[in-house]
Specification:
Length: 260
């Protein structure tokens, strides 16, 4: 198997660019750096982390033309679709940065019969989050969990789809330019075996995966065996029912849009 991944535009069949598959020794070093940088990132207040990610949002908007172009080239999508994806992530960043200080704040709870005690609920990061994202929405389905993981004090290692690796690189570049430390958010490239290595590694503490039901079952089994938390968004094909009196032109348009 080649040590390079060629990104192909499915609409034109033209090569968009190439990335190197992350070798095992580099893969391990990336995870080690992620672990070493996590404590310092965690020690920042939620408000401070949110402030950094607000700068990321500014970079996202500033670099939106470049990002939209890369998404469309790698997926074959029209530019308007890539534009909507990009602006949705900008809105998600705005919302989550505003909500995180409240969602993650310490909560006072009733001590029950232990009236001489004080009870609080506090939230702590898992550590290093391994995020495996798909090709169909390569920005929103990667950046959204990255944002939430970082706001919560986790470090992130993202494995983008081998069909959209350049989008993954661009996402990281924007986050780093926005002020996220380089070792706090890193990217690995590869195929199914690289994703499996991220799941199986004892250096990842939580896995977020978006993809097929088949792969999701494998990840759930592996994470269950390791007692490692996993967040799975699993796809599938659903029926589309068109009634006899439906507008067929609109139905066809909806079927094509929904299918791709």
């Amino acid at each position: 198997m080649t040590n390079r991944i060629i990104s192909i535009n499915p609409a034109t069949q033209e090569a968009v660019g190439t990335v190197r598959v992350t070798k095992q020794d580099k893969f391990n070093k990336i995870l080690e750096r992620s672990i070493l940088s996590q404590q310092k990132w965690q020690e920042l207040s939620v408000a401070k982390r949110a402030g950094i990610l607000r700068q990321v949002r500014k970079q996202l908007v500033k670099k939106s033309d470049e990002l939209i172009s890369i998404i469309s080239e790698e997926t074959g999508k029209p530019f308007w679709d890539s534009f909507l994806e990009t602006m949705t992530v900008a809105e998600h960043l705005k919302y989550m940065c505003g909500q995180a200080p409240y969602i993650l704040s310490k909560e006072k709870r009733s001590p029950g019969i232990f009236i001489h005690k004080r009870t609080y609920l506090r939230y702590f990061p898992h550590g290093t989050a391994g995020i495996i994202s798909p090709w169909n929405y390569p920005l929103i389905l990667a950046a959204s969990p990255v944002v939430e993981a970082l706001l919560s004090g986790n470090t992130v290692v993202l494995k983008p789809s081998e069909l959209t690796p350049l989008t993954g690189n661009k996402i990281r570049q924007i986050f780093v330019q926005g002020g996220v430390p380089e070792d706090v958010f890193q990217v690995v490239h590869g195929r199914a075996d690289t994703g499996a290595a991220l799941v199986e590694s004892p250096m990842t503490d939580v896995i977020c995966f978006t993809g097929s039901v088949k792969t999701g079952r494998v990840i759930a089994e592996s994470c269950g065996r390791q007692l490692k938390p996993s967040i799975l968004e699993l796809g599938g094909n659903d029926p589309m029912i068109v009634m006899e009196d439906a507008d067929t032109d609109r139905a066809v348009s909806a079927a094509v849009w929904g299918g791709f």
